[in-house]
Amino acid sequence: MKAEELDIRFDAGEDITQHLDLSKARRPRQEQKRVNVDFPVWMISSLDKEAKRLGVPRQSLIKMLIVRHLDKTKM
Fold first, then answer.
1. How does pLDDT run along the chain (75 residues), one tens digit per residue?
2. Number of domains, the chain
3. Range of the domain at 74
4. What is the pTM of this model?
């Protein structure tokens, strides 16, 4: 299928996923890299309480807090 036909089908609201190789799909700037961070026990307790209050896992809370801080410091 040519790209033009794919565009037409997509614009018409058709499901075109069967024509895509999603095994190689990447989200720009969303690749993940593991980092290890040591926190004091009191901080882990505070993070866990806040995560429970919000109903999210600790890792998600940490990511949310870091993103919030980085958004504030953007220039």
1. 788 999 999 999 999 988 888 888 888 888 889 999 999 999 999 999 999 999 999 999 999 999 999 999 986
2. 1
3. 35-75
4. 0.62
